[in-house]
Write a structure and sequence with these properties.
Layout: H1 2-32, E1 34-38, E2 50-52, H2 61-69, E3 74-78, H3 84-93, E4 97-100, H4 107-119, E5 123-126, H5 140-149, E6 153-160, E7 163-165, E8 173-175, E9 180-185, H6 196-208
Parallel strand pairs: 1-9, 2-5, 2-6, 3-4, 3-5
Antiparallel strand pairs: 6-9, 7-8
């Protein structure tokens, strides 16, 4: 029992201190990099939208969202897995909100949270192939939210000029300091009139255009 309590205590301490450290390190990394934003300014939609991005590219995209949107009113869907605690605290330090749940755990809860966020005028951030893949697949959640609330989707991609790449299912990468980060944002698009398969195909097509 004592060992179990000690393990839980150490885990809680890690969750508390890891997010601030991660925030500082990633902010410094982002600051050292040259940033290039690629999008059509005349097509930017200020209404609540769903921002989608591949799991392997997500590390710099929270910072890029702020550069693109000029605000912090986004709630990101984060897995209810224990690893999601650190990610949630990190997102909150950036000024964003968190919706807990995923396609593998807490799906209904995540959908309700996303509906509420959009109704409040906030954006929703989703990794359609997270939290466990397969890589570059599109789950049902993004389609259900976009069609139920009749909101546009914006795809986001990050292409670093140099990086460290992990041998993980999502091929996760961390940009190297002083590299160039190319951020791509699609024009807002709707999937209201598409069936589920066609909607997924369109989302994947837009995401793969600048996938890294």
């Amino acid at each position: 029992m004592v060992k179990l309590l000690n393990k839980k205590f150490k885990k809680k301490i890690l969750e508390v201190i890891a997010a601030p450290i991660l925030y500082v390190l990633l902010y410094l990394l982002y600051f050292t990099c040259r940033k290039k934003f690629h999008f059509d300014k005349t097509k930017v939609n200020n209404s609540p939208s769903i921002f989608v991005f591949w799991h392997g590219e997500l590390i710099m995209l929270p910072f890029a969202y702020h550069g693109f949107r000029k605000r912090k009113s986004i709630d990101s869907i984060i897995s209810e897995h224990s690893d999601g605690e650190i990610a949630s605290r990190f997102i909150e330090l950036l000024g964003g909100g968190v919706i807990r749940g995923s396609s593998t755990r807490g799906g209904v809860k995540a959908l309700k949270g996303a509906f509420k966020s959009i109704s409040q005028g906030r954006d929703v951030g989703i990794t359609p192939d997270g939290p466990k893949g397969p890589r570059h697949s599109v789950s049902n959640g993004v389609v259900l939210i976009a069609q139920k609330k009749s909101v546009p989707i914006v795809t986001m991609n990050c292409q670093p000029s140099s990086c460290w790449r992990f041998d993980s299912w999502d091929r996760f990468f961390i940009p190297k300091p002083f590299c160039t980060l190319n951020f791509y944002f699609s024009e807002p698009f709707y999937i209201n009139d598409l069936d589920e398969d066609k909607a997924k195909e369109l989302i994947k097509e837009r995401l793969m255009k600048h996938a890294f």
